[in-house]
C-alpha cells in the first residue's frame, strides 16, 4: 500500500492542469490525484492527506502502480496469460484478433476470444480498418463479456497497415475517430486503445491523438513509445509519456509501453514518466516471473533472486502442457519453441537444451529433455549446472515474426 503526501504552494502542484507532484519517500512523480482534504492551520502552505492511489479503468480497480501484460500475437494466449496472472499481472490483454476474421467466422479468430474466468480483468484486442467490420466484430467480442475491449492502432506489420489497420490508421485520424466511435457505440463495456507515437518522426501526433481519443470516450490509452517506422528498432522514447500527460491534459489512465524489460526498468518508467500503469511485452516472454519480481521491487526496492531451477522447470512443463491442451500437441510443441529462449536465458547449457528441445515434435519428447534437466543429467557439451551464469551478454529481444 502506498501513501503519498501532497503539498500545495510548494512547487508540487500545478493547478492549471490539475497535476500534482507527490512522493512516497522516493523521487517526485507527477500524477493526477484527488483534491487535498485537509488544510494546514495556517491555511495555505500545506495541504496534506494520506491517499492510496489506485488506478482505475472506468470502474475496474487495478490497484496501485499496476503492471499489464501486453497483447502479443501467438504469445498472449490463455496458457501464457494464466501464468502471468499467477505471477501478478494486474491486467491481461489477448493477442490482436482480426475483425474480418471474427465476422467471417474464422476458426482461429473465434478461438482467440476464449478466456478463463480466473483471467479477469481481461481486455480483448481487435484490429481492422473497415469501420463496418469493426463495428460488427465489436458485437461479437462484447458477447463473450471481457472486462475491456481494446482497439489496436499500433501494429506495424505491412499486411495490416496497408488496409488502415493497426498503425496504418495513424495516417488517417478522421477514420481513426470513426473506428473508435463505432467500437464505443457497439460495446457495452469500457473501450481502451493501444497505439504508437505516430507513423514516422515527421508525423508524431500522439498528443492530439490522445486528446481526441479521450474526447471520444476511450477509457485508457496504452502507448508504445515508438513510431511505426521504428518498428522495434532504437529505444522506446519514454519522454513522450510526460508530454502526453502534460500537453494532452489527459484524465484517463495512460499506460506506458516499450522496453520495460526488467523490474528496474518498470520502476524507472513509473518514476520518471508519470504513467499510470506499465505494460510489459517481450520482457515477459519465457519470464512470467517478471510481474512478481517487479511488484516486489516496487514495494521494497530490492530484487528477488531469480526463480529456483526446479520452479523454472515446473513452469516450463505447465506452460507446455497448457499450450498442448490449447492448440493440440503438434502446434503446442512448435509454438512453445519461442518461449525457451526466455526460460533458459542466462543458464549454462541453455543453447544445448534449446537445441535438444527443438528436435522434439511431441509432448513426451520435450518432457524427457526437461526431465534430464531436472535430474541434472543433461548431456550437453558441459556438465549441466542449474545456476545462473553471471556476465551473460544481454539477449536480443524477439520481434514478431511477421514484421
Ligand atoms: C511476438 C510479439 C507479438 C505482438 N503482437 C501484438 C499484438 O497482437 N497486438 C499489439 O497491440 N501489439 C503486439 N505486439 C507489440 C507489444 O504489445 C508491445 O507493444 C511491444 O513489444 C513493445 O513492448 P515491449 O518492449 O515491452 O516488448 C507484439 C510484440 C511481440 C514481440
Contiguous runs where pLDDT drops below 50 for at least 5 residues: 1-52, 379-397
Tell me the CATH superfamily of the largest domain: Aldolase class I
Task: Figure out the total of helices.
Answer: 14
| Assigned CATH architecture of the largest domain | Alpha-Beta Barrel
Name of the CATH class of the largest domain: Alpha Beta
Order of helices and strands: EEEEEEEEHEHHEHEHHEHEHEHEHHHHH
Biggest sheet, open or closed, and with what strands and sense? 8 strands, parallel, barrel
Which ligands does the model contain, each kind named once? flavin mononucleotide
Ends: how far apart? 41 Å
Provide the gyration radius in Å.
Answer: 22 Å
Overall body shape: globular
How many domains, in number, for the residues?
3
What is the CATH fold-level name of the largest domain?
Answer: TIM Barrel
Into which percent range does the helicity of residues fall? 25-40%
Strand content is 15-25%
Strand order of the largest sheet: 8-9-10-11-12-13-14-15
User: What structural class results from the helix and strand content?
Assistant: alpha/beta
Amino acid at each position: 500500500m502506498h501513501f503519498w503526501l501532497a503539498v500545495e504552494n510548494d512547487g508540487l502542484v500545478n493547478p492549471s492542469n490539475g497535476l500534482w507532484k507527490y512522493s512516497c519517500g522516493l523521487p517526485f512523480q507527477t500524477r493526477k490525484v484527488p483534491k487535498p482534504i485537509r488544510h494546514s492551520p495556517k491555511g495555505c502552505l500545506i495541504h496534506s492527506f494520506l491517499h492510496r492511489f489506485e488506478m482505475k479503468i472506468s470502474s475496474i480497480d487495478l490497484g496501485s502502480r499496476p503492471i499489464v501484460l501486453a497483447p502479443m500475437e501467438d504469445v498472449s494466449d490463455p496458457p501464457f496469460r494464466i501464468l502471468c496472472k499467477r505471477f501478478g499481472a494486474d491486467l491481461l490483454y489477448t493477442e490482436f484478433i482480426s475483425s474480418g476474421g471474427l465476422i467471417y467466422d474464422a476458426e482461429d479468430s473465434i478461438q482467440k476470444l476464449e478466456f478463463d474466468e480466473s483471467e479477469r480483468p481481461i481486455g480483448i484486442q481487435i484490429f481492422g480498418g473497415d469501420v463496418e467490420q469493426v463495428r460488427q466484430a465489436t458485437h461479437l467480442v462484447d458477447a463473450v463479456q471481457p472486462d475491456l475491449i481494446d482497439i489496436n492502432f499500433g501494429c506495424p506489420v505491412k499486411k495490416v497497415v496497408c488496409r488502415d489497420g493497426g498503425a496504418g490508421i495513424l495516417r488517417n485520424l478522421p477514420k481513426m475517430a470513426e473506428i473508435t466511435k463505432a467500437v464505443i457505440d457497439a460495446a457495452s463495456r469500457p473501450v481502451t486503445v493501444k497505439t504508437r507515437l505516430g507513423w514516422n518522426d515527421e508525423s508524431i501526433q500522439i498528443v492530439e491523438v490522445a486528446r481526441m481519443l479521450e474526447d471520444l470516450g476511450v477509457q485508457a490509452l496504452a502507448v508504445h513509445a515508438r513510431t511505426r517506422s521504428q518498428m522495434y528498432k532504437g529505444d522506446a522514447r519514454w519522454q513522450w509519456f510526460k508530454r502526453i500527460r502534460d500537453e494532452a491534459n489527459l484524465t484517463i489512465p495512460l499506460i506506458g509501453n516499450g522496453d520495460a524489460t526488467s523490474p528496474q526498468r518498470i520502476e524507472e518508467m513509473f518514476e520518471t514518466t508519470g504513467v499510470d500503469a506499465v505494460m510489459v511485452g517481450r520482457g515477459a516472454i519465457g519470464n512470467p516471473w517478471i510481474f512478481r519480481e517487479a511488484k516486489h521491487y516496487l514495494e521494497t526496492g530490492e530484487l528477488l533472486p531469480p526463480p529456483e531451477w526446479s520452479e523454472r522447470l515446473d513452469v516450463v512443463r505447465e506452460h507446455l502442457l497448457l499450450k498442448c491442451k490449447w492448440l493440440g500437441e503438434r502446434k503446442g510443441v512448435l509454438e512453445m519453441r519461442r518461449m525457451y529462449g526466455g526460460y533458459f536465458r542466462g543458464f549454462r547449457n541453455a543453447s544445448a537444451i534449446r537445441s535438444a528441445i527443438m528436435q522434439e515434435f511431441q509432448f513426451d519428447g520435450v518432457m524427457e529433455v526437461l526431465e534430464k534437466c531436472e535430474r541434472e543429467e543433461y548431456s550437453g557439451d558441459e556438465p549441466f549446472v542449474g545456476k545462473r551464469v553471471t556476465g551473460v551478454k544481454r539477449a536480443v529481444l524477439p520481434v514478431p515474426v511477421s514484421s
